[in-house]
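Records of this kind hold a single protein each, on a pair of labelled lines. With that in mind, the following record should read easily:
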Amino acid sequence: MKRSLIATALVITLALAATASADTAYVYVGPPGSWPDLYFPYTDLQEALEAAAERLLEPEFDQAEIWVVAGSYTPSEPVDPYDPRSATFGLISNVSLYGGFTGAETDRSQRDPLLNVTILSGDIGVSGNALDNCYHVLTDNGTTRAVLDGFTVSDGYADETGPSSKGAGLFNNGGSPTIVACIFSGNVADDDGGAVYNTSSADPEFLTCTFTGNQATDGGAMYSDAGSCPGLEECLFNGNVALNDGGAMYDDGSSTDSTLEACTFDGNTAGNAGGAMYVHDGDPTIKLCQYLDNVSGGDGGAIYNDAGDPVIEEETLFSGNAAGDNGGALAGINNGDLTVTNCTLSDNV
């Protein structure tokens, strides 16, 4: 069932918080009655993003924060005026978006994203009909110092060609956003990266994020190519599906230097190789991670290495993974240089 905005008339206000530093512009998003005594009302989240960008042109501001009340928000402004599905929330350099508010907070530390669920949804058309959803819920075109914190990103559906077949939750074209405590769920891409697609040397950072129930041909949750170097810390990948390779992640492209620390890959599935992760000509560093109960129809129940140089170390655990052909936990091909140090492999099939 498609979620609606908290109120029929969404009120978005832009103002300086009384406790804020003078160099930060604040944008408040919520229903009537929230964020009292503020001014400059707007009617949707997309307009608020644009207003925040405009305020950054003023010399007294060098950053902006957007505080968003719990509810569900959909993109309203198509990139292509002839294609409603091209609507997307565009991340902006020096703009931080924070979810999880009730509308009464005076300090960001008072919010609770787990209790006050704030959803960025691609379900812009007929409720429950994915065929008219956004191609990308979020896009990043080369941002710096952009932050997304405390949101659920869901129902992107990238089923066309080219870029519109990749990254249904977030299409990251060369950006370096920091994504914190976000949940990417139920996003589907016909091609690469059901939840996230990183390209053009993108350098994002994902902290304590969850990727669950996303699907793509390659990289069920995330696909990184063209030298992109995502960093992931304490993230969970659960129940993602790749019809071909890389049930949770596909790391593709020379000079890719991804880092994964204290992440868990649990119950992801690939139709072919790499139940949790497929590495092609990349050199990720993996430490203190857990690969549990991932399944591939072909080789590498957890990780498949194709001409890459991954380093797996510091007590990473591989347990209960299964491959239809070779390598219940790990498999490799094409002169890849796989290094495994101080790790545990048990009960893989």
